[in-house]
Amino acid sequence: MLRAEGITASFGPTLALDGVSFDIEAGELVAVVGRSGSGKSSLLHCLAGLVKPSSGTVSFEGQPVYDWSERCRSDWRLRQVGLVFQFGDLVPELTLAENIRLPLQLAGTGKASVNARVAAITDGLEISDVMHKRPGQVSGGQLQRAAIARALANRPSVILADEPTGALDTTTGQLVLEALMHAARDQGTAVVLVTHEARLSSYCDRELTMTDGKLAATPTVVSR
Amino acid sequence: MMRLVLLGARLSLGAGRSGRLRLVLMATGSAVAAFVVLTALALSGLAEQQDVRAQRIAPALNARVIPEATLVGNVIADGWNGRELLRIVLAEAAPGASVPPGVERLPRDNEVVVSPALLELIETEPLVAQRFPQSVSGTIGTEGLVEPGQLLAYVGVSDASEIWQPATIERWGDATTTGNLDPRAARTVGLLVLLTLVAPVVMFMATCARLSATARTQRLAALRLIGLSPWRTQLVNSIELVIVGAGGSLLGLATWLTWRYLDPAVHVGTFSWYSSDLWPGPATMALALVALVALTVAVGLVGGRAGIRRPLEVRRERSVRAMSWWRAAPLAGGISLLAWSWHTSGQQGQFVSWMAPFALGMMATALGLVLAVPFGALVFGRALGRSSRPAAVLAGARLRHEPAVGGRVVAAMAIAIFAAGFAQVVLTSVDAAFAGTDENQVGSVFDLTAYGTTTDAARYAAISDLNLALPKLRLGPDQVDAIAATCVQLRAATTGAIPGCRDGRPLFVRSIQIGDSPSPVGTQADVDRALTLAGLPKSASSVDLTFPAGNGSFYAAVIIAPDLAPPTTQFTIPFPGSTYDPQAVVAGLAAVDPGAVWDSGITGVDRLDSARIYTGIVAVGTASALGVALLAIVIATLDRTIERAGPQARLAAIGTSASTIRAATALQVLPVSAAVLVASGAAAILGGSSYLRWGDPAINVPLGPIAALTALGVAAALLATLVAVVGTITRPLPHLLRTE
Questions:
Q1: Is the ipTM value over 0.90, yes or no?
Q2: What confidence tens digit (pLDDT) does each residue in B486-519 have?
Q3: Quick one: which of B614, B202, B205, B621 has its CA closest to B415?
Q4: For chain A, which domains are there?
Q5: Of B182, B323, B489, B625, which residue is most buried, by most CB within 10 angstroms?
Q6: To the nearest whole angstrom, how far is the Cα of A198 from the nearest Cα of chain B?
């Protein structure tokens, strides 16, 4: 579904990605682990169509993502990709409900479907009671669950999550992880999870290790 | 599309107290700008409205007194403190005489109906009261005045014999009359004021449109990361800006209309107008408001580029900028051009070849003062970074991280000081051109149809205030022009010493308009031509001078001592203007020649009121620019105080002392702001020096007023620093520690 072939990316003198190749299929949950600065986030940004690699290709269902226009890539990200960052990255002026509805509305989903979809997601993530609050008014865990909800809203084909549980307690982290697993198992969403936590990796189908911008030669296969 | 519009509308409402405060500040910015621009636009159309009023109240005179006349009278121009004082003497010759506009009934013998402004003067100034010994029987209403500050009197007398040069007043209303301002000149002056105001207003608008810039950039970046394309994100941004800009502009329009309604008669110094005359027209107003909204959107779109182009960097606050050397280029280029203008103006007389680089230099300098702020902030931030003191390190880091912020705070003030400082130079030039005319006098220039016999000279000499010593003259066929001024005034007006000038001694003046001449100073050929026309030998010329450009025209003047004066008509009569009594002049003229017509004889910007009007308009422009700039500093400072709250709380959370945070805050604001404002004052001095060397080399740059303006700007920067320091967050407040 999503494939990276020999991608290289550098920021100034720093080589963030060095010929990384990797692919992920629908319904697969892949953990990307590695030390800080190893290039995990850069890989995620390249996969999301946000940072164009200096060489190599990223393709989605066989189509090279970076051959598309910026507008097409944005639209692809809106409809097919769910992004989750460590601190949520919600629009601070909007309530949680508005934030979660936003991608659905931008994608042109009808009002009734939007409400039903949002209700279903937020119930599962246990944030229904804080939906009227703005990001600055809720806890980090609630914020992150709202970000997950937003990423799931459009039923994306791919979810790219950058340390989604890094700032959360174990229980809340578990909730978030279950939501991502549910997306992968029940909706066939491909999930790429960048994490430091070995515990999270154990829930994934595969674990890829990044070292100095390179992917470990043999992906670790994790048993469920 | 509709969803994007709704999203933009939703985002424009902001969130939380700080969000709403910023929304109010942004809308206020647009409102103030709309108010100022509408006023400036309306001022340029004010002259037409005042013309209509002047035409409505002017008496249509028939020079002869006809038997069937019902009303006879005459208009006598008088003055007070450089302001025109019109005295219309009336005698009812038969029943049924028409009443002047704004007057309930005609004044009877020994009665006077005065304008409210004149009544106030009569009550407060004994010298004015002496001129109106009649009893005041009423005041003139609004419809009978050109402006609320107009000095106008209808003096009643018993019959025509008491009127100097009586004429039949056929009706009230004369389409050939003009108001105090020549519409064309007023439009020009209004346009100049608008241009002077445009820069600070644009900066102000930019300041307001960039309020909450950090939050908005973050928001745009978040939208981009969700999957909104750059174009759609800009659309959301535009809609948000349109709503705020349009809302603010409409608020400004409403305030402006309310002001017009609540204050029907506006006085600014000696400058006054009726609010009903201040109306630029619906099309102009609509265009201005649309332009202001467009400006808000443009500034906001430019300001939001980082969030749209580099959303990841913005969300992670990695948008530290590299040193942008090009930002210093406009200032360096502008200063270089001004220095070149200063250097070459003394040698180069060409208007276009000098003025074009000079104007370019002024514009580049103004732009450069704004653009150079981030550059200066980066340089200063780097310097602070070398320090070991925590406050300096923190301030340096912040300046390097957000170098453009300082520009948002002081840009409007920097432009205002530069523009206002230069305006002071122009004012000084104008003042010199009209030197002495703001004394208690009227008609430093007046026309006489005839004078010149020995008897006349004796009669003139009897006028103590004039103290003339006229030579024996014969009347010539041409119209006689006499300029009454002191030698000091003449020297100022002609920008040079006049040989043979002595107060009270007539000097022959032959002026040649040389507006079409390629040379602005007049050539020897011009002088020779003038002398030939006057029937004088060419060697008779004593001075070849140019009247300055202050009145908008160029004249080559040949001034000749009386012993060589031709038997002709034009004379300069220098006398001390400060003791000049216009009534004595009127009496003296009437005694010398009953057929003489005394008239201030000047129209448009050449009119006696010109200095007052120029001064008034420039003063209004300067005050508005500084006011707008001060407001911009206050608003931007408040905005920055809100923006700094989070980082300051985080500093407090890691144990940074309150004094260190405050010191870091002060270091971020004051040095760069003060340096830019002082540079603005210095640039104004350089620009002014260049201008004066070209136009008025005898005049010095008014360093005092420019220094005062600069000091005002630095005081504003100090105020901004104080506000920032007082508003410093020194405690780790939980709600500010959130990253969202």
A1: no
A2: 666 566 555 556 666 766 555 655 544 433 333 4
A3: B202
A4: 2-91+155-221 (3.40.50.300)
A5: B625
A6: 25
